């Protein structure tokens, strides 16, 4: 396998880009089209099947609701019949062998009104234990109770059926034979008990018109190929469409104790069965598999045609794209070959604005620059030498200044003027920091700078009138902060807090707490009035640099605004600045910077410095 793979890689690297591009394009086109076609067919088949099952489930559920409504309605009719007073008069006179002709006539008229008002009722009959009292049929030619009692259904059988209901309606389904044809008959039987004595006096039988089921199905089933039926006691009461009754009965035996719609799929039919729990009946739908998947076969053919067309169209587009991309690539290849021979010529304008057009433009720019560099290399060397001389001169000036300060220091020590020597040393340290090119110093270097600065100011204030206290964590001393970040704050504290008072103390603290560097500059000077402090805070928030009148200059905000600006520019939201002050009690300034921000900013500065150095070396 490894040898085959290596051979394939070796061959792949030797063929041209156009062949690679076309081969990969055909693979990328062919595989997705096949996968999309197969998956689309599979998904569509499943969706059609699920849609049919869902549609059929809704149909038979609706049919069940309507049939249950009819069942309840017909049960109510039987209850209404039992409320008729003439019924019990007829039964009572029949038992006593008294003439009841007039009562039967009145009862028959009421039954006729019920039948005429309810087309779902085929016949109504009242029976005693020994004989028929009265039967009323509708005016149609359908079979009625008078034709089936007791020729096809015995009175004894009806009595047994009604007795199972114990006074409640019992639905009974049977097959009737007429003219060599069998037809289902649906009867509702009910025992008649005397409301006063509660004794059994007879049987009420109501024959149901099975056409009500056919009407229900004809309204719900639109698919001609779909068959639907109502089955009770193993007898098909009503059927619409062709249905395999033998297989349906087998499926029904499996769904006997199940709830909801049960779906069975065979190689020939898809069957849905829904029980009607009130009567132990079932509603069944059936459709041949060939008919259901007839549309799926059409979908398969369309998918094949679409896949073929997609393959042809995408192949043509890939070929055009390949030719469009290879033309500028070949032009670049030829131009590089010429450059290798020493011919520095540009590529003709192909009027492209895409990445290849940008590449060609950059290539042409590179060729122009190479020609320019070749022609002007000697001038560049001279210019570079002049720049080096200027750099040496700028390095010499600070060195010359330090030599002069060192000479003054030597003369002061020689003449025994130690104060001048101390000032010169402090000034040298200040200049050393100011002349450094680094943007960041360690907190330790900043503290030394402040110490030198205070030692110079003590000449004016006096050694005892100006005190400096420093308290910095050891770990904080090595942290790098922006150069001269603290000095403007110390200067403000001295000239605007201590000088009006004549004497005072400056405190500088540096601490690490909660992953932050906290810097505190505090003085015990004259402080700032509340209104002035409010104005300063607003100016700091707005980065205001408004110059105040001469009498207001003692509270200038220039140094503070400079510090706050630098903090926001360098650290953004990772740094906080606050100022608190009380009149005649002093001012406290606090700066907080996240430690992660300190290290991040320093690293970015080093990378920037390194980048500038590389550019200067080019």
From TrEMBL:
Coiled-coil annotated residue ranges, if any: none
Protein name: Histidine kinase
Organism: Caldicellulosiruptor diazotrophicus
Domain of life: Bacteria
Molecular function per GO: kinase activity
Residue ranges of every copy of the HAMP domain listed in the record: 323-375
Compartment(s) where it occurs, according to its Swiss-Prot or TrEMBL record: Membrane
CDD domains associated with the record: HAMP, PDC2_HK_sensor
UniProt keyword list: Kinase, Membrane, Phosphoprotein, Transferase, Transmembrane, Transmembrane helix
Positions of transmembrane segments: 21-41, 301-321
